[in-house]
Amino acid sequence: MGIRETAKALEVIGFREVYFTEKISSTPKGSFKKPEKNKEELLKRHFESFKDCTKCPLHKSRTQVVFGDGNPYSPVVFVGEAPGEEEDIQGRPFVGRAGKYLNRKIEEVLGLKREEVYITNVCKCRPPGNRKPTSAEISACFPYLKKELEIIKPKVICCLGATAGEGILGKKFSITKVRGQTFPYPYDPSIKVFLTYHPAYILRNPRADGDFTQDLEELKRLLGL
Ligand code: SF4
After folding, report:
1. Domains of the chain (ranges plus CATH)?
2. pTM given for the model
């Protein structure tokens, strides 16, 4: 409820005059920044600490480690599987066809621009031939994502596909059975984990676009947007 509506509601129940003693500032939609915490610096230092990582076999085929990207003050972090060819070249997650589709859906359904949210992957290096990362690779890389999420501390982690869900929740499942559902994040139950399809799946199965839209509408509700 805004200031005017609050004042009107108080008037109805008998208040003749209403004084607001503190300055009430509203955060413009999309500018989720809290300047008291320098999350950009913490993320930069975190990335520096593992950008030459050779902990799992994926280091052999990558061009570069691909870290997360976007607004670290966003209430939602989208987590995908691993970088693809384009992401490996550009060093940014979700910049190929699936990324463009995701950007469009975020804008259409959530009303947010890509740069207003944070996007990352469970595995930070491109698997050869764009295969799925193995469970061992996901486990090896997870501490980096865990730390990334600790710094950002979003309200909701939105897992895009079963591989992302496996990385975040630590178990395998069928995404068609759990999509649209919410679980507590095991390392911080105050954070919700929401599951939906990977955008690349929707590009291969356009009929699932309606389900994806429905899931994003539920995500919007969880975020209070
Ligand atoms: S995928 Fe993760 S664990 Fe494997 S080499 Fe890359 S950064 Fe290291």
Report:
1. 28-223 (3.40.470.10)
2. 0.84
Could you read off the pLDDT of 118-136 as tens digits, one per residue?
Answer: 999 999 999 999 899 999 9
Range scoring the smallest mean pLDDT among 9-18, 188-197, 215-224: 9-18
**Is the CB–ligand 1 distance for residue 125 below 6 Å?**
yes
Ligand 1 site, residue 145, Cβ cutoff 6 A: no
Q: Is the CB of 123 under 6 A from ligand 1?
A: yes
Sign of CA dihedral 170, 89, 111, 104: negative
**CA gap 121, 200 in Å, rounded:** 14
Residue identified by tokens 């990385």 is 167
- pLDDT, one tens digit per residue, over 17-66 is 443 333 333 444 555 655 556 999 999 999 999 999 999 999 999 999 99
Give the Å distance between the CA of 67 and the centre of ligand 1.
11
d(CA 38, CA 158): 23
Q: 159 forms bridges with which residues in the sheet?
A: 79, 195
Q: E strands of 134-206, at which residues? A: 156-160, 182-185, 188-196
